[in-house]
Every structure is written in C-alpha cells, then in structure tokens.
Design brief:
The chain is an alpha/beta fold and 346 residues long. The protein contains twelve helices and ten strands. Keywords: Aminotransferase, Pyridoxal phosphate, Transferase.
C-alpha cells in the first residue's frame, strides 16, 4: 500500500477485495453464502456496535441483553436512549440467553422487546450457544419482528465442546465480528458487519447504517483493510492463528484444573474465547470481588478482573480470568496464586 500510494479513504463499506475475502470466509468456515454486498467493514467491533445500535433502535425501545455480559452493550444502548432489559443468566443455561427467558422478559405486550443482543463465545464467561439455541433465538426474534444482534468477535477460538454456528444464516440477524481476537490484530481497528439479505425494509436500515458509518468514521482504516485482504486469510496465517488457539486451549486446561483447588466455584464451561467466569465468595470475604482482585494483585502480582462491570447485581461474587498469554505466563500465575493464597484468600 505504501509503495503504490493507496492511502486515501475507501468507500464506507470497505474495499471490494476485503469484502470478497470475508464472504469467502463464511462459505469456507460455515458453509453459509454471504455475498460481499452484505459485508460492511467497520472501525473495529466497537464501531460496528455503535452503528448497529443507533440504526436499529429508537429511544425508549426495549433491548434484551444477558447478565453477565460485555458492559459496552449496556453502555451504548443506554447512550442511544434504549430501555435495557437485563436478563440474568447462570450455569443452568450455560450463561446464555434462552427463548424461554425472553418470553418471560417480553410479557408486557404494550412494550415489546425490539432487539436481542447475544455473544457466542461470550465475554466474560467464554460460553457458547449451540446451533439449535441460536436458531431458536433467531426464530423468536423473527416472529416478533425484533432485531437479533449476534456478536461473533471470538469466533474461531473454541475448544470442541460446542459446534460453532453463525447468525449470518438468519434473515432476522445482524452479525458483528472483528479481526482483533482470532486474527490477533488488536489495535488495527478493523471489524465488519453482516447485514440481512436485501428487502424493502432491510434496505432502508442498511442505508442508515452506511450513512452512520460515513458520518462517524468515513471508512475503516485503509491500510488495515489492505493488509488483511492480502495476508490474513492465507493458509500460512490460518496455521499460525490455529496455533494460538491451541495455546489458549492448553492454558484453559491448566486454569480449569487449578481454580477449584484455589477455592473458586461455579466455574463457567469456557467453550470458547479466552475467559473463565468463577464465583469467588469462598475467598473474597466482605470486600467482594473488587477487594479480592486488589489483594491478588498486591500479593500474587497477578491481575484478574472483578465481576461487577459485567453483572451489576451479582458481579461482586464473581471474577473473570483471562488466559490469552503464553503457557509459561499462565503456569507462573497459577504458581503465584497457590504460593500466596494465605495472604489473598479471606
């Protein structure tokens, strides 16, 4: 790109070559045809979330999200004036929303739910929806003319416990994804949307998405688009990236074995991504997860995340562990936690 001086803005949807590569990725990975005209590149997944929420919902619309969940969903929905319907999930549903829970949350016919946001794999729990569960949620939304927003940023990082499926197969869904996680390109600020197949209604919505993209960002970064289109989907790159996933899997196994012995309970299944969500009441004491995380940082020199950002009501009883580092780093963190447990455990 530098040698050919291709440094200007692209169109708001991104370069044709990158959108075609992403289209091919859906056919190859999921067996789902997603034409390049349905792809819009974005300023990372965060830019995609902002554009989709703004285009899809009006002030006062009720939008359902899972708790625990990624805090930016709640924050951005609230910023655009939505009434956020927080649905508490737990191990009984693998920390994922279900259609039955949405039925209960949608009991007031005078104020129907207009949108549902799901993430599979999830941050902070690492859990995944099965293909059937995702289909049931898509059908629930289609029957009620609600928008299903499926955050698939952690796709590709999974450990064989749940089959991976994409909401791009459903006409009621909008898919958000990114090159930050599986493709290990944090900081390049490049994500994408898969918009629904063209119809009179979806075309108006897509025009709003494109207008917002133009006004907020103009386009995704040109250099990032060109770099990804030229290299990210090559066999050499995929082999390297799958090597990262193998490392995450090894780290996951180490952590899942260690946490019960360290006093943590109700540990999420961690089907994908690189997070584990665990109850910490036994070791946190009266200060809750925030106090525990401070003590672990002080005494074990290890960083874990308090749960209250992800779950406002129950999060003080939970912490999130991330295991995206090297195997040596995770082994050392576990060693430190064991060695200093008497100092950080209540």
């Amino acid at each position: 790109a530098l040698s050919t001086n291709i440094l200007g803005y692209t169109g708001e949807a991104g370069t044709e070559s990158l959108r075609q590569k992403i289209s091919d990725h859906y056919q190859h990975t999921y067996g789902v045809h997603v034409g390049p005209e349905r792809i819009i590149t974005t300023m990372g997944a965060s830019g995609a979330i902002l554009v989709v929420f703004t285009a899809s919902f009006n002030p006062g619309d009720r939008v359902a999200i899972a708790s625990p969940g990624y805090p930016c969903y709640h924050n951005i929905l609230q910023a655009v004036g939505c009434d956020v319907v927080t649905v508490e999930v737990d191990a009984s549903t693998n920390f994922q929303l279900t259609a039955a829970q949405l039925d209960e949350a949608d009991a007031d016919s005078s104020r129907p739910i207009r949108g549902v946001v799901v993430a599979s794999p999830s941050n902070p729990t690492g859990t995944m929806l099965t293909p059937l569960e995702l289909q049931e949620l898509a059908q629930w939304c289609a029957q009620r003319k609600a928008t299903l927003v499926s955050d698939e940023i952690y796709h590709g990082i999974l450990y064989g416990t749940v089959e991976q499926s994409t909401a791009a197969a459903f006409s009621s869904a909008v898919v958000i994804s990114s090159f930050s996680k599986y493709f290990s390109m944090t900081g390049w600020r490049l994500g994408w949307l898969v918009v629904p197949p063209r119809s009179a209604e979806s075309e108006r919505w897509e025009q709003a998405v494109r207008a917002l993209q133009q006004n907020l960002f103009i386009s995704a970064p040109t250099l990032a688009q060109l770099a990804v289109a030229s290299a990210a989907f090559s066999l050499e790159s995929i082999d390297e990236l799958d090597g990262h996933v193998h490392r995450y899997s090894q780290n996951r196994n180490l952590l899942m074995e260690a946490l019960p012995a360290l006093g943590f309970e109700d540990i999420s299944r961690a089907d994908g991504a690189f997070y584990v969500w665990a109850r910490c009441d036994n070791v946190a004491g009266k200060e809750g997860s925030g106090g525990l995380c401070n003590r672990v940082l002080d005494h074990a020199r290890t960083a874990i995340t308090p749960g209250f950002d992800f779950d406002k009501r129950r999060g003080n009883s939970y912490v999130r562990f991330s295991y995206s580092g090297s195997e040596a780093t995770i082994e050392e963190a576990i060693r430190r936690l064991h060695a200093t447990r008497a100092r950080w455990s209540a």
